[in-house]
Amino acid sequence: MxxxxxxxxxxxxxxxxxxxxxxxxxxxxxxxxxDKASYRTLVADLWYVYSAMEEAxxxxxxxxxxxxxxxAELNRREALEQDLTFYYGGDWRQKIQATPGAxxxxxxLHQVAKDAPELLVGHHYTRYIGDLSGGIILKNxxxxxxxxxEHDGLRFYEFDAIADEKAFxxxxxxxxxxxxxxxxxxxxxxxxxxxxxLCNMRMFQELEGNLVAAIGKVLFGFxxxxxxxxxxxxxAA
Length: 237
Hints:
CATH architecture: Up-down Bundle
Radius of gyration: 21 Å
Mean pLDDT: 87
Shape: globular
């Protein structure tokens, strides 16, 4: 008998979701403090993560649990490649490198795909539905903070193949609830979704150092200018 996986995932990951939002990098991002160097590193990390996930899921379209949620319209790899071209240029493949956090995340995806592919549902839900739900808001924040045009460097947040986001998410939840799993498997999928949040938090925490350094440089420059202005005023007096 099918279980109510959608609601279990939503309720079972609330704490982890809040913890992820409270990391320094995400908290700053939501407040409009976005350093372009840190952000493009995040885009590169996400490319590695989504490449691993979409490759794994692409091989499991016939799997009874994974196959039903393999919605091609959610795929982010191509959009991320467009963003990487914007930030790094056409030779971006030679310029990017996964951070340790991203490497750990990718390793986790490979392990799950090999040992317990049904648990990929937890990762799929955590990343794609989060991206779809917050995409417009995050895109607007990033666009304003980094002074970007409407699309350049922001394709990751654009789901052009999904005309009705609300209807899609309703269908996605119905698909989760119809998966042929028992409660034990549902519990493991929820646990893996929480692990996915932890993987994301590790990536965010690595980016915090870059963000703090960038903010420090801006603050140092501001204070230096004030000191120079103060010295000039003193001389003029």
